[in-house]
Amino acid sequence: MQNQSQQQAYDRGTTIFSPDGRLYQVEYAREAVKRGTGSVGVRTPDGVVIAANRSVRSPLMEQSSVEKIHQVDDHVGIASAGHVADARKLVDVARRRAQTEQLRYGETISVETLTRSVTDHIQEYTQTGGARPFGVALLVAGVEHGEPRLFETDPSGTDYEWQAVAIGGGREDSQAYLEENYSQEIDLDGGIELALGALAATSEDDLTADDVEVATVPVDTETYEAVPRDDLEGILDEVSFDE
Amino acid sequence: MQNQSQQQAYDRGTTIFSPDGRLYQVEYAREAVKRGTGSVGVRTPDGVVIAANRSVRSPLMEQSSVEKIHQVDDHVGIASAGHVADARKLVDVARRRAQTEQLRYGETISVETLTRSVTDHIQEYTQTGGARPFGVALLVAGVEHGEPRLFETDPSGTDYEWQAVAIGGGREDSQAYLEENYSQEIDLDGGIELALGALAATSEDDLTADDVEVATVPVDTETYEAVPRDDLEGILDEVSFDE
Amino acid sequence: MQNQSQQQAYDRGTTIFSPDGRLYQVEYAREAVKRGTGSVGVRTPDGVVIAANRSVRSPLMEQSSVEKIHQVDDHVGIASAGHVADARKLVDVARRRAQTEQLRYGETISVETLTRSVTDHIQEYTQTGGARPFGVALLVAGVEHGEPRLFETDPSGTDYEWQAVAIGGGREDSQAYLEENYSQEIDLDGGIELALGALAATSEDDLTADDVEVATVPVDTETYEAVPRDDLEGILDEVSFDE
Amino acid sequence: MQNQSQQQAYDRGTTIFSPDGRLYQVEYAREAVKRGTGSVGVRTPDGVVIAANRSVRSPLMEQSSVEKIHQVDDHVGIASAGHVADARKLVDVARRRAQTEQLRYGETISVETLTRSVTDHIQEYTQTGGARPFGVALLVAGVEHGEPRLFETDPSGTDYEWQAVAIGGGREDSQAYLEENYSQEIDLDGGIELALGALAATSEDDLTADDVEVATVPVDTETYEAVPRDDLEGILDEVSFDE
Amino acid sequence: MQNQSQQQAYDRGTTIFSPDGRLYQVEYAREAVKRGTGSVGVRTPDGVVIAANRSVRSPLMEQSSVEKIHQVDDHVGIASAGHVADARKLVDVARRRAQTEQLRYGETISVETLTRSVTDHIQEYTQTGGARPFGVALLVAGVEHGEPRLFETDPSGTDYEWQAVAIGGGREDSQAYLEENYSQEIDLDGGIELALGALAATSEDDLTADDVEVATVPVDTETYEAVPRDDLEGILDEVSFDE
Amino acid sequence: MQNQSQQQAYDRGTTIFSPDGRLYQVEYAREAVKRGTGSVGVRTPDGVVIAANRSVRSPLMEQSSVEKIHQVDDHVGIASAGHVADARKLVDVARRRAQTEQLRYGETISVETLTRSVTDHIQEYTQTGGARPFGVALLVAGVEHGEPRLFETDPSGTDYEWQAVAIGGGREDSQAYLEENYSQEIDLDGGIELALGALAATSEDDLTADDVEVATVPVDTETYEAVPRDDLEGILDEVSFDE
Amino acid sequence: MQNQSQQQAYDRGTTIFSPDGRLYQVEYAREAVKRGTGSVGVRTPDGVVIAANRSVRSPLMEQSSVEKIHQVDDHVGIASAGHVADARKLVDVARRRAQTEQLRYGETISVETLTRSVTDHIQEYTQTGGARPFGVALLVAGVEHGEPRLFETDPSGTDYEWQAVAIGGGREDSQAYLEENYSQEIDLDGGIELALGALAATSEDDLTADDVEVATVPVDTETYEAVPRDDLEGILDEVSFDE
C-alpha cells in the first residue's frame, strides 16, 4: 500500500506500473465511471434487459438526447456509464465490427466476439502512451442462437459475463438489490422490473418514466427493442420498490 | 474533491485522469467557452432560431466580421461561443461532412448525424496527446423531413438536444430566462424574440440590432436564412425585455 | 485572475488551457506582435491603403529590405507587424493559396477566403503540440468585384474586418488617431494621409519618406500598387500631423 | 542495493536501466502478476495439465467468463496470471502465430516456437519507449510429436520449461507443494490432482469445482480438452488436500 | 524585462514564447554567431566583396580548410560567422536551391530569391520543436542583371540588404568602421580595402594575408572570384589601417 | 569524476553525454551483464569452445530451457551473459543476418562480419532515443576457412577478438583463471576443460554437468556441436579444479 | 561564463543553446574523444600516414581487434579516437558514400568530398533531437590526383585540413611534438617515425609494435597500405624518442 505522494509518482500515464504492480490511470478511469449515472443489465431465460438512469440538466433539454443505451446490431444493444463521448466512441467501434463481420462472413457476430473486439480496443489505450484510458464501462447485451448473453466491459479492457449487473454511480446499492432479488426464473417483464428496481435503489426519489431508458433483446425475436415510454410508465405504476 | 496543488498534478494535458476521474483540461476548455459572448438557440414548431451576441472592439471594426453564426448546409446553421478560431475549424469539419454526405449518398445529411460527426472530432482531441481540446461550444440547428432539431456540443465531445438553450458567457442568466419564458407553442417570430430576450438577459444595456446576429431554419422552407438587420431592429423596437 | 507562479504552470505550450480557459502562449505571441513596429490599414470607397513603419538599424542598411508590405496577388497586399520571418512564412501561405485558386478554378481568390486560409494555418499552430504560435499580426487588403476589403489576423487565428485599423507597436495611439480622424468619405489620397498620420501618432520624431512603406489597391484598377517614395515625400510635405 | 528515493529515479519507464543494471518497470510488472490469482501447470508422461484459480466478484457473475485458460491451437493451451486484458492480448498473439504457421507451412507450430513468438513480443515492450511491459505471466502447455511440453513466460520476455510450475498469487506455496509432491511417473489424472492440490495450497478454504478451471492436452490425442465441471467435482471429492 | 530565473523558464526550446514575446533560443543562437570570427560584406557599383577573418589553431593546420567563404553559384558567394558546421549545412541548402532553379527554369537564380530560400529554411528551425535554431549568420553576395546585391541572414530567419555590413565577433567595431569609411563611389578594389579595414578594426594585431579570405563578384563578369593570396598581400602592403 | 547527484543528471537515457564524456546508460547496461551468470569462450588451434553457467531456480525446472548457448549458423554459435530476453533478440538478429548472406550471396557469412552486424544493431540502441541499450554481452564463436574465431560484444556496441575470454558474473575470477592457464597449444578437449575450469573458478561449489552448457565448432568439421551431457560428466569427473 | 548549476540547465540535449551560445552536449562529446587513446596523422610529399595507439585489456585479447584504423576506399583510410562503436558507424557512412560515388559517377571520391559527407552526417546529430552527438573524432587520410590530403573531423561536424595532427587522449603532448618536429620535407618513412614519436610523447613507457597500428597512402600508388608489424618493429628499433 502506498501513500499519496508515492502514488503521485506513478499515476501520470498508462505506460508505467506502480511498484506494487498497479496501473493508477486505469483505476482513475474507473472513478470516471462512478461519476456517471448508473446502468443495469438483467439476463432472463426470455431475453436480456438493459436499463439506464439519465440525468437531465434542464426541463428544456430533450431527455432522449441523453443517450445511454445504443443499438449496435439487430440483436445487440449497449448500455454505458461514465464519460459520454468515450461511450459513443466505443459504440462506434462495436457497430463497425458488427458490420464488418456481416460483410466479410455473411454472419451475425456473436455477442462475445463483439464484446472482445471492444475490450481489445480498450486494452490498447491502457498500454501504449500518448492517450488516456476510456473513462467508461459498458453492458453489452444480446441474443445469439436463442441464448441470451450479458457482458460487462471495464476500463482495463477486461470483460465479465453476468446474470445481472450494475455499473456506474450507485453500483454498490444496485448490485446489492440485484443479488437480493434476482431469480433465474423471471420472465422478460420481470427482468425489466428488476432492472428498474436496481436503478431505483440508488436514489431517494421515485423513479419516473422520464428518468430511465430501457431496451430488451427477447429470445424469440433476437431483435433489439427500445421499451416505449408508455410501457415504462405502466410498469412503474404497477411496481412499488421498497428501499 | 481535490485542493489546488493536487489539481495541478493532473491538469496539464488530455491524456490523464485525476484520481477522482476528472479530465481537467476539458473542464478548462469549458472555461474558455464561458469567456466568449453568449449564443442562444430556440426550437419552435415552425423552425429553429439561433442568435448570438457579438462584441465589437472599436467603432471602426466591421460588426459583420465578428461572425458567430455560420451556415453549414442548406438546412443547417451553427452558432458558437468561445474560442473563435476553434469554432471556425469545427464549422469547416461540419461543412466538409455535409458535402461528403451529399456527394457519396446524394442525400442531405441529418442534423443529428452532422452533430455527431462534430462531437466525434471533438472527442478525439480529449483522449489523444499532442493537442488541446476545442475551447468552444456549438449550437447546431436545422430542419430535416419537416422536423426542427437543435443540438448543443460541448468541449468533452458530448451532444445534447434542446428545446431552447444558451451557451457561453452569461449562460446561467440566459438559460433561466429561457426556462421561464419558453413555450412549445410559440411561432418562429416568437422564437426570435425569445432568443433575443435571453441574450438581453445577460446585459444591463439595451440590446441593439448591431449587437446581435440571428438566423433561422423555417420548417416550410427547410432553408437557412440570416435575419436581416432591419428585421432585427423592428423586432427589438416592438419588444421591451423586462429583466 | 492568476498570479505569476500559477500562470507559469500553464504557459509552456499551445496544448494546454489555463484553469480560467486561457492560452498563454497565444497571448505571449501577441506580445511579440507589439514588439514589432506598427502597421496601419485604411479602407476608403476608392480603395484600400496599407502602410508600415520600418526601422533601420544602420545608414548602410537598404531600407527597402526591411519589407513589411508584400504583394500577395494582383489585387491583394499584406502588411505585417511582429516576427519578420513568421510574417514571410504566412505571406508565402497566402501566395500559394491565391495561385492554387487561380490554377484550379481559373478565378481570382476573394480577400475573405484568402484571409481565412491564413487564419486556418495560424489556428493549427495554436492547438497542436510541437510548434509555437505565429508571432505576427497581418493586415490583408484588397479589392474584389469593386469592393475594397481590409482584414486583420491575430496570433489566435481569428480575423476581423475593419474600416481602419492599426497593429503592432504603438497600436493604441495609432488606433485612437484613426478613430478620431476616420471618415467614410475620404478618397484614396486621404486614406494614405490618414494611415501616415496614424503611424506618425506613435512617434515623437517627424516621419520621413524613408521611415514608411505604403501600398494601395484602388477600386478602379483592382491592382496592387506600391506608393513611390517621391509621392510619399510629397504627401508628407503637404501634411503636418498634430500630435 | 538502492534506497527508495534512488529507485524512484529509474523506475518510470522501460527505457532506462538503474545504476545496478535493473529494469524496475519489468520488476513492477512482476508484481502485477502476483496480484492475480494463481495458475499451475503439470507435465506428465501422458500429457500436460494447466489449472487456474478464478475469483468471482458476485454470485451473479458467470464463472465461465473469468477466463484464465485459453485454447490457442488444437494441441496447445495457455493459462495466465496477472492483468487479464494483457493476457488476452498475448493469447491473440499466440493464436495468430499458430494460424500463420499452419497457413504458410501447412504445419502445426511447435510449442517452443509458439512460446518464443510470445516472449519476443513481450521483450519488445521492455526495451522500446511509449508503452509499458505486459503485466502477466503465462503457462504455455501442449504436445508435439508425442512429447508433452510446458513453458512459463515472464514479463521480461524470458521463457523457462518446467515439469511443474505455479505462477501468480501464492506462487511460493503452490510451487513448494509441487516440489514436494511431483513425481515423473504420475498419470494425467494424477497431474490434475497435483495441480488442484497446488492451487488449494494457497488458500485456507476448501477448493470447489466453481473455483477452478482445468484443461489438458493428452499425449494420445494431442488435442486440447477443457476438463468438465463434473469431472472436477469428482476429483475434488476423492481427494482431500492436507495443508 | 525579466530576471534570470524567469528567463530560464522560457529558454529551453524554440516552441515557446516568453511572456514578453521573445524567443530566447533564437537570441542564444545570435550569441553563437558572436562567438565566431567576423565576416564583412561591401557592395560597390563595380561588384560585391565578401571577406572573412579565419582563426587558425596551429601552424600545422591548413588555413584554406578554415573555410568561411563559399561559392554557391556562378554569380553568388556566401560568407559566414558562427557555428561552422551549421554554415556548411545552409550553404548546401543554397547550392541545391540554385541548381534546382537552373534545372527547372533554365535560369540563374536571383540573389534575393536564393537568400529567401535560406531564411525560409532557418525560420522552420525557429518554430517547430525537435531541433535547435541555426547558430550562424550569413552574407549572401552576388550580381544579377548587372546589379550587385548583398544580403545578411540572421538566426531568426530574417534577411536584410546592405551596402556594407559586418557579422560575427567584433561586429560593432567593424560596422562602425564601415559606417565611417563607406562611400557609394568606391571601386571594387576600394571595396576589398574597406572590407579588410573593417576586419582589421576588430584586432590589435596587424592583419596578414594568412588571416583573411576574400572573394568578389564583379559586375562586368557576374562571376564569383576568390581573391588570390598574392593579391591580398599586395593590398595589405599598400594599405595601413589606422585604428 | 562526478558525485552521485551529478551523475543522476545525465543517466536517464542514451541520448546524453555526461560532462566528462560518459554514457551512463551504457555503463548501467554493463551492470546488467554482471548480474547474469558467467559464460566463457576459448579458442584453440582445433576449434572454438563456448561454455555457460546456468542457474536453475527449482528442481522442477528443465535445465535445458535456461538456454545461454545458441547455434546461429552451421559454423557459428553464440553464448550470452546478462538479460536473457535481450540475448535472444540479438541471436535472432544474427540468425537473420546469416540467412540473408546465404540467400543473397550464396556464401557462408564470416564470423567477423556476423559479429559486426550484431554490434551495429547494439550501437543504434546507444545513440538514438526511445529505447534502452541491450543489457547483454555475447561471445560469437565460429570457424571460417579453417580458422577459429572468437569475438566478444559489449553493450556499447564494441567488439573484441580473444584467445580466451569470460563475460558476465564472476568475470574477473574467470578471466584470471584463463590468463593463468591458457596455452595456444591446447587441443579442443583441453579448451573445453579450460572453459569449465574458468566457470568453476567463480563458485565455491563443485561444478556438475547439470550446471553447464558447452558447445564447440571444431576446425575439421566447421560445424557447431553441442557437447552432450555425458561427455561433460566424463570431463568433469576427470578434472578436478584447484581454486 | 556560466557556473555549474547554470550549465546544467542547458546541457541535456543537442537541441538547445546555452545563453552564451554554446552547445554543451557537443562539448561533452569532445570529452568522450579525449577519453580514447590517441591517433596521429602526418602528411608528407610522398603520402599520408595515420597511426593509432591501441590499448589492450588482457594478454588474451587479439590486438588486431582493437581496430582504430580502417580502410575506407582504395585510396583513403580513417583513424579514430573516442567511442569505438560510434567510429565504426561513421566509417560505414564513409564507405557507403565512397561506393555510391563509384557506382553513380564511375569516379573515385575526393578525400575532401568524403570528409564532408561524414561531417554532414555528424552535424545532423548536433541539431536534431532524439539522438546524441557522435563521441568520436576522425582523421581522414588519402591521396587524390597525386596530392596527399589529411582531414580531421570533430563532434560538432566541423572539418579541418592538417599537415600533421593528433586527436584523442594526450592530444596536447602529441600535437606539441608534431609542431616541434614536423618538416615539410620529410619522406613517408620519416612521416611514420614522426607519427610514432607523437604517440610515444603521450606515454612514459616505451612504445612497442604491439601498441600501435599504422597505415599509409603513398602518392605513387595512391593505395591504402597497413604497415606490417615487422616494419613497425624495425622502425621502433631504429628510433629512440626523447621525451
Automatic annotation (TrEMBL), chains A, B, C, D, E, F, G:
One Pfam match: Proteasome_A_N
SUPFAM superfamilies in the record: N-terminal nucleophile aminohydrolases (Ntn hydrolases)
Source organism, top-level taxon: Archaea
Record-level GO cellular component terms: cytoplasm; proteasome core complex, alpha-subunit complex
Activity modulation notes: The formation of the proteasomal ATPase PAN-20S proteasome complex, via the docking of the C-termini of PAN into the intersubunit pockets in the alpha-rings, triggers opening of the gate for substrate entry. Interconversion between the open-gate and close-gate conformations leads to a dynamic regulation of the 20S proteasome proteolysis activity.
Family that this chain belongs to: Belongs to the peptidase T1A family.
HAMAP family cross-referenced by the UniProt entry: Proteasome_A_A
Protein name according to UniProt: Proteasome subunit alpha
